[in-house]
Amino acid sequence: MPKPLSRIIFLISLIVIASSSGVFAERPASLAPPGSNAERQKLLLPLKNPKILVKKHDRQLFLFSNGKIVRTYRVGLGLSPVGDKVRQGDRRTPEGDFYIFTKNNQSAYYLSLGVSYPNAAHAARGLRDGLINKEQYDAIMAALRAGKTPPQNTALGGDIYIHGNGAGSDWTWGCVALENDDVRELFNAVPVGTPVRIER
Length: 200
Prior knowledge:
Blueprint: H1 3-20, E1 51-55, E2 60-65, E3 68-74, E4 96-104, E5 112-115, H2 120-128, H3 134-146, E6 161-163, E7 176-177, H4 180-189, E8 195-199
Parallel strand pairs: 1-8, 6-7
Antiparallel strand pairs: 1-2, 2-3, 4-5, 4-8, 5-6
Helix pairs in contact: 2-3
C-alpha cells in the first residue's frame, strides 16, 4: 500500500475513534445554572404596559410586558406571610391591587419601589372595624384617586415596599424582598404608576 494512502486511512481511523469517545462532543457555552443572571437576555426597555404580579404562596414575582411574562423572580415575604395585612405591626404582606407610588434609589434595602398600601378595600375594612376614622378613610381614598401616596401612619400600617437585601427567607415586616440583582433590574424596568397585584 502506498504511504500517502496509509496515512489517510490512519487519520480517518483517529477521527472515528475520537468521535466515538466524545472528544469532539459539543460543550455547553455556559455552566451557569438555568435562570441565573449569566443566562438572562437583557430586558427590552421600555416595557409595554408593565405590570407586577406577586404570588405569595409560590414566593414568586412575575413581571409582565404587554400581557406577557418577561421575568420571574424569587421573593421573600413578611415574617407572618399567610393572610392579608390588617393592621400596623402584624408583619403580613398585603393582598390586593396596588400601584407603585415611588422609587427610592437610596433605600436602606438597596433599592425600593413603594406599594400603595392601604388600598380601598383595606381602608373600607379598617373603617368598618374601627381601626381608622372617617377622616383617615377619606384621606386614603383621595390619595388613591389621585395616584399618590396613601397615608402611611394610620393603624392600618404602611411602608410596604418591593426592595432588595435577599429573597432566601420570609424576613420583612410585610414587604416583598428580592435579591439585589433582581430588584435593580425591576427598578430600572418599571415606572411610578405601574400596577401591582399581590395574591395569596
